[in-house]
Amino acid sequence: MQCIVGNLFISVAYSDIYDREYTPQIVSNQGVSFPSDKTRETFVIYISKDIDIGVSLCSRSYDNRSTEHRPFDRRYYEGYRRLDQSRERDRDREPHGAAESYYPRDFSPNMYDYRHGRERERERDDSYRRKGSRRKHKRRRRRTRSYSASSSVSTTTSEIVVSTLGEGTFGRVMRCIDHRRGGAHIALKIIKNVEKYKEAARLEINVLEKINEKDPDNRYLCVQMYDWFDYHGHMCISFELLALSTFDFLKENNYLPYSIGQVRHMAYQLCLAVKFLHDNKLTHTDLKPENILFVNSDFTMTYNVEKKREERTVKSTAVRVVDFGSATFDHEHHSTIVSTRHYRAPEVILELGWSHPCDVWSIGCILFEYYLGFTLFQTHDNREHLAMMERILGPVPSRMIRKTRKQKYFYRGRLDWDEASSAGKYVRENCKPLRRYLLSEAEEHHQLFDLIESMLEYEPSKRLTLSDSLKHPFFENSGTSDASGSKNWEGNRDISR
Fold it and tell me: Which residue in 23, 49, 200, 322 has the fewest CB atoms around it within 10 Å?
């Protein structure tokens, strides 16, 4: 289907916006001729079946990390599973949230489902299609494949293939060619024609427009929005095209952690980008490795003879922060629960209110994950999460315990936690004091953990600010033999390239 939307000329196999079970298809024998009016901006859906699917601006569910990401086997204690059910139901009712919050939470009280949200979505979709009218479905597909007599279609033969970069319950992200940018590739986020998703998209657009206004040259490493428009009720947002997320690269590399030099460069960029948000009275609220994307994820491959495995090393550690769907201005309403579980700050769990420091906590968890290849707090339960914090960071401050409304987690001023239970045994055996996770006694490793420790301070008021983080000795240390993580980036102020 081709359509003029304002000054945008769109060419797209339109049914694929609706059909959630997507298989790339070729619309053959349909030539596309573009308007002679060169003032019109043209988006054409990209053209190749062999595209390397290298980026996803969609995020996974808040509490739905894959079992592949767990460094050890895990059996959850039955007694604590139900504690978060009301909290997660409250989260579902929040109208303002990231793409993450769009994922339905279909955990039953008796089991946790670690499958990707996309797989569960497909199961629901299959069920819906079995119940629906096959005739009606076919008619819809036929209609959306057709071209009107007035559309600009030539008789020459060409092929157009729609390529999906990522998908979620909110919609899809497609790889496209933007002719107004000289044929540059872009990412086009297409939102479903559902009001709650459209409203969330409008909120995200508002944040992205503010970022563009404050950082027109894209110096502060937040993903750049090029444009947005409404197409047949679908909100569409175009972004710069990025590569794999730092999580996806880690996953494809069998969770082999990044080198200390690579961690340093990514940490500096992350602190710089989020400091920019905080300076402009914004809290991201959903920082995690999935929402930090490489500009280019090309890598070199080496074979480790000792460990008998191939290992990838990313060539460039330039990154961008993405997914501002749950970013919140200081003056706006603050939802009770924010952040993906594993990166959620204690003040959020205890419902003490949150602000910029909750992003700093998330960054501390992210740096740990980059360094070791697995999450620091691998749990789906509030009480267990607090027990892990105490095991790794020490006891929760008494002031926070006195102030919280969540007294059910405490007894006589201490965490109410049964260390003799199966969950207690799990925490005791698989969590240890933070410094015991060090892989080396080298100074730069201790400096990294000093930075992480300062970011994981319980009290938000005592937590390290990002302004101070950028001055931390860890970023002054150049003693690394890792070329891709060396301090060459510091000599060039354009650290994003």
Answer: 23
Distance, CA of 59 to CA of 65 (rounded, Å): 11
Q: Is 186 in the same domain as 232?
A: yes
Distance CA 197, CA 191 (A): 7
Q: Band of the pLDDT at 438, cuts 50, 70, 90?
A: very high
On whether residue 464 sits in a domain, the answer given is: yes
Cβ(212)–Cβ(220) under 8 Å?
Answer: no
The pLDDT of residue 301 is 95
In a domain, 12, yes or no: no
User: What confidence tens digit (pLDDT) does each residue in 90-144 have?
Assistant: 444 444 433 333 233 333 333 334 334 444 444 444 444 444 444 444 444 433 3
pLDDT band at 490 (very low <50, low <70, confident <90, very high): very low
- What pLDDT does residue 165 have? 85
Annotated binding-site ranges: 189
Phi, psi of 228, deg, nearest 5: -150, 155
Q: Which is higher by pLDDT, 446 or 31? A: 446
281: left (phi over 0), alpha (psi -120 to 50) or beta: left
CATH number for the domain that contains residue 382: 1.10.510.10
Q: Could you tell me if 189 and 285 lie in one domain?
A: no
Q: How far lies 293's CA from each of 57, 125, 221, 454, 489, in Å?
A: 9, 29, 10, 25, 18
Q: Are residues 363 and 225 in the same domain?
A: no
Whether the CB-CB separation of 292 and 314 falls below 8 Å is answered with no
**Is residue 63 in a domain?**
no
Is 215 domain-assigned? yes
Q: What CATH number corresponds to the domain at position 190?
A: 3.30.200.20
Residue 286 a catalytic site member: yes
The boundaries of the domain holding residue 262 are 244-475
User: Per the residue annotation, which of 63, 286, 323, 381 is the catalytic one?
Assistant: 286
| Judgement on whether residues 202 and 325 belong to the same structural domain of the protein | no
Q: Is it the case that residue 76 has pLDDT exceeding 50?
A: no
Name the CA dihedral angle for 324, 327, 333, 337, rounded to a multiple of 10 degrees.
Answer: 100
Binding residues for ATP: 189
- Rounded Cα distance between 5 and 66, Å, is 40
What pLDDT score was predicted for residue 69? 47
Residue showing tokens 């009712």: 93
- pLDDT over 90 at 30, yes or no: no
Domain count for the chain:
2
Specify the pTM.
Answer: 0.70
Amino acid letter for position 220 = Y
